[in-house]
C-alpha cells in the first residue's frame, strides 16, 4: 500500500478517538481526489475491527463492507456474475444502501465491531442519502460509518452534522516527486506535478494517460483561442473518440487545474472573470457527463469551446482599454 505523508494528522485524530471512552460512529474523510482517503479508510477500518486474541484475515474482511459504484444494469450484473468486464453505474443507488442495511441486522462476524465504507459518498443519489441518514441517526450496535468524499459540500447537511470530519491536505512538490519515483514513474514529472496541484492520484493518472500533449493544447486554447475551430478538433483527437471514464475524469481534472492556476495568476480582470466562469462550467459539465450519454467527441468539443471563450473575453477587454 502507498505510504502517504499527508495522513499523519488524520491518524492522530483517528487513534485518539479509538482510545477514548466512546468512538464516534460516523466519519467523513474529506479532501481532493487522489490523496489516499480510500487507503486510509481501509487501514483505519482494520484497526477498528481488530480485537486481541481474534485472528484477522489478510484479505477481504467480513466485518468491513464497502459500498461503491455497482453494475449499471441487469446486463452488467450478468457480466459481473460471469466474471466478465461490466459497465459501472454512475452513482451509488438506494438499493445498495438497502442491501447494506439488511446485512447490518445480524451481528458482526469476528468481533464486536464492523465498518461500512461508502466511496465516494458525494456520488449518492438524494434518495440514497436519505436512506443512509436513517442508519446514521440510529446506527446498529458496534457499527461505524466512514464516508469518503472529494466534495463534502455535496453531502446533505444532515449527514455532515452527524459525522466527524477528517481533512486530508494536499501534498507538496517534494512529496509528490518522491511518491512518483516510488511508483516507478520515470522521466520528467514536473508537468504532472504542476497539473495535479497536490494530488498524487491526479499526477499518477497524468503520467499513465500521457496527458502532456493535452495539457499543452489546453494552455494553447486559453492563450490563443480557436477562431478557426480547428483547435477544438485537435483537442477531440488528443482526448480520443473512445475515451473511457477514467480518461475523461482525468481530462476534466486537468482542465480545471490549468484554468484555476491561470485564474490565480492573471492580472487581467476580464480574463480572470472568464477563467472563473470557465472553471465553474467545467465543474458542472464534469458532474453532468457521467449522468448523460454524451458522445465523447461532442463532449471534447464542448470542453474546447469553454476553454477558447477565455481568450475571446480577454481580447474584448484589451480592445476596450
From TrEMBL:
Family matches, as Pfam families: DNA_pol3_delta2
Gene3D superfamilies (UniProt xref): P-loop containing nucleotide triphosphate hydrolases
UniProt-listed InterPro entries: DNA_Rep/Repair_Clamp_Loader (IPR050238), P-loop_NTPase (IPR027417)
Lineage: superkingdom: Bacteria
BP GO terms, sorted: DNA-templated DNA replication
Entry GO terms, CC: DNA polymerase III complex
Coiled coil ranges: none
Stated name of the protein: DNA polymerase III subunit delta
Species: Erythrobacter longus
Organism placement in taxonomy: Bacteria, Pseudomonadati, Pseudomonadota, Alphaproteobacteria, Sphingomonadales
